[in-house]
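Need C-alpha cells for this chain, all 264 residues.
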Amino acid sequence: MRLAAIQLVSTPRLYDNLERTRHWVNEAAAQGAEFIALPEYFCLMGQSDTDKLGVAEALGEGPIQALLSELARQHGVWLLGGTLPLKSEGSDKVSNTSLVFGPEGQLQARYDKIHLFSFHSGLGESYDEGRVQQAGSQPVAFEMKGLRTALSICYDLRFPELYRALTPDLICAPSAFTHTTGKAHWELLLRARAVENLAYLTAPAQGGLHENGRRTWGHTMIVDPWGEVLACVPEGEGLALATLELRRLEAVRKALPCLQHRRL
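Here are the C-alpha cells for all 264 residues:
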C-alpha cells in the first residue's frame, strides 16, 4: 500500500488551510497514494487556543468534514483528517479528533485525543491543551485493506501502553510537536513506537513558523517496522511517500517474534 503523509504550516484562517489541504491531497493522490494522512490542526492553527471553539463542528456537519469526505471519494483513497475540533456534548470544550474517511467518502473511524499536552519550559513557552479540549477515553483501531490501523495523536506518542493495547500493523500519529520537544524527542519516539510494535508508522506533522508565533518541529516521517525512516520532510509544506510492504511486515515479525513473547 502506498502511504502519503502531508506536512503543513497551518494559519489562523480556516479556508486558506482547507485550500492547502486540497492541494496536497490532490498531489498525493496523483502520486499514487492509497492512504493519505494530514497533520494535527491541519484546519486551523489559531492565534489562541480558544479559536478552536469558533470553528468546531458537530459530527457529520460542517465544511471541514465535507472537504475530507469529498476528497476521499474524489480520489478513491483512505484519508485521515489529522485533527479537527468537534463539539463535545454537554461541555463548553471541544475534542481534538481524528476522522478517517474511506474511498467512497464514508466515515470509517473516529478517535478523540486521550492524552492532552501540557508543557511549561520556564522560558516563556507554555501550552495546556486541557484549557479548551475535552480528553477522549477510548483507544481506536480500524481495519484498512486487511491492516489493523491504530489511531493516535501527537502527545499520545509518549504513552507506549496505548499502542500495545491496539496491536497495530500501522500506527498513525498526526502531530504538531513544538520545536523544543520535537528537536529532543520526535524521531526517537516515532522509531521506538514502530520497533516496539513491529509496525509501520506514519506521522504527518506541522512544520515551520506559524503566524501566531508558534514554531513546530515538522520532520514528517514514515517509519518501517525495523525502525528505518523511509521518508522525511524536514520543514515547510511537503509530502512524504513510502510503500507499506506486507512481506516486509511479516518477515520482521517472523525473524523477531517478540510480540508472541509478551508476558505482561
